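Predicting holo structure, zinc ion bound.
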Amino acid sequence: MAETDEVVIATVRGQLKRRRRGADVVAVGDRVWLTRLPDNEAVIDYVAPRTRTLGRTARHTRDVVQVILANPDQVMFVFAAHRPEPHLRMLDRFIILAELQDIPIHLVVTKLDLDGLDGAPLARDVFAEYARSFPMHYVSIRTGEGMEELGHALVGKVSAMAGPSGVGKSSLLNVLDPGEQRDTAEVSIATGKGRHTTVGTRLHSIGNGTFVADTPGMRAITMVAVPAEQLDWSFREFRPYLGQCFYQDCTHVHEPDCAVRDAVAKAAIPVGRYQSYVALRQGDEIDNSPVR
Ligand SMILES: Nc1nc2c(ncn2[C@@H]2O[C@H](COP(=O)(O)OP(=O)(O)O)[C@@H](O)[C@H]2O)c(=O)[nH]1
Ligand SMILES: [Mg+2]
Ligand SMILES: [Zn+2]
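Done. Tokens:
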């Protein structure tokens, strides 16, 4: 990728538009070839095939129909230790989406300076099940704790940052790239809910070939149902046991001789993650309530 701060206003060549109907023709994160025109204008002639895509897929074909970020190297799911309280079932849905696209996942827990306040449980206990399977980053922009380590995880990569509003995503970007100040919202103390201040995906270049995207569209996309036959695989903790159940089409909910349920009983699979799977599998819309 040519690293330049140049901004051009580009349109998409008509031929391209016709060929890739349905999906987004060009999205944030795409590598493109363009023909320069005068006055900082350009025409996009070609869009390179995407390595991976963070986005919404069609239910059966798995074609990406709505792109949040093209070509991410990894995705950082961001939740706060406190204010707002972490919503783990929402995190589970985020994780499924990334697993289906084979995008490496990191979890970032922000506002560590508020950890355990107001009698809230400690973040490292809340996220203990996840720490067994995912790289974790515990940070605070107030104390600076964990920020250097998070910077190392981002360097040289294109990362998507996603999470509920108010958890501190924009604040993190402001610290990582102090050159450009972004809107950060005040969290209302009464509800613990943050106000929305970010609209579309934006990829921020923060130097050394490092790019970080704010991805506000994630939540709506995770409300889309996941095909049942892909759901068990989307829980990476289950994978060592898949194919070992008595029934080949085992749903791991009620069948006898189920390797997944045996693993849960032995605590080899975290019980909270398993319960999340069951709720999704049974179609209980665990996130039907307005989500933070
Ligand atoms: N105490 C504390 N507050 C934070 C931290 N990071 C962000 N905040 C505050 O949380 C609120 C929401 O932050 P913002 O970056 O707008 O969240 P976003 O919606 O995820 O982009 C703001 O009032 C920030 O000042 C942190 O590490 N500690
Ligand atoms: Mg924001
Ligand atoms: Zn089973």
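The chain has three domains: 1-49, 69-222, 228-281.
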